[in-house]
Amino acid sequence: MKKLWILSAIMLLFTACQESLEDRCEREAKEYTRKNCPAKMDNNTTLDSLTFERETHTLHYYYKLTGFADNDSVVENMDAVNILKNELRNTTTLKLYKDNHYRFAYTYRSEKNPEKVFIDIVLTDKDY
């Protein structure tokens, strides 16, 4: 009987220490931003930060476009929505969040004029 009580106490301790998916997502977004941002994605794109919006279960990526890409005509001529959808569909590292129907937001701003937003899109489970 004593062994059963100790085993039950240990199991309760382990289940109490587990963090929720929301807590994990928020923690990982903060850690990623702190450790990796700003992060050059390519010659013209920098990831400034990653946040988690708990109320809407949204991972929000904030990018800055620089150089050649920091231009209305360049952004208008690319099919950004479909590119982002395809990238999200093919990203295996986000599987846990996609399986739980999280949303993914992408905001691309100008380096020359940070108030200028080139792309601001939210993708839901219907998109991936």
Describe the fold and architecture.
- This protein is an alpha+beta fold.
- 42% of the residues lie in helices and 28% in strands.
- It has helices at residues 2-17, 21-36, 72-77, 80-90, 95-99; strands at residues 39-42, 45-53, 58-65, 103-110, 117-123.
- A five-stranded mixed beta sheet has the order 1-2-3-4-5.
- The mean pLDDT is 91.
Largest sheet: 5 strands, mixed
Record field, number of beta strands: 5
How do the helices and strands follow one another from N- to C-terminus? HHEEEHHHEE
Which strand order do you get reading across the main beta sheet? 1-2-3-4-5
- Per DSSP, the total helix count is 5
Low-confidence spans: none
Q: What's the Cα radius of gyration?
A: 20 Å
Distance between the termini: 51 Å
Task: Tell me the β content.
Answer: 25-35%
Shape: globular
The percent of residues in helical segments reads 40-55%
Mean pLDDT: 91
| Secondary structural class | alpha+beta
Write the layout of secondary structure elements.
Elements: H1 2-17, H2 21-36, E1 39-42, E2 45-53, E3 58-65, H3 72-77, H4 80-90, H5 95-99, E4 103-110, E5 117-123
Parallel strand pairs: 3-4
Antiparallel strand pairs: 1-2, 2-3, 4-5
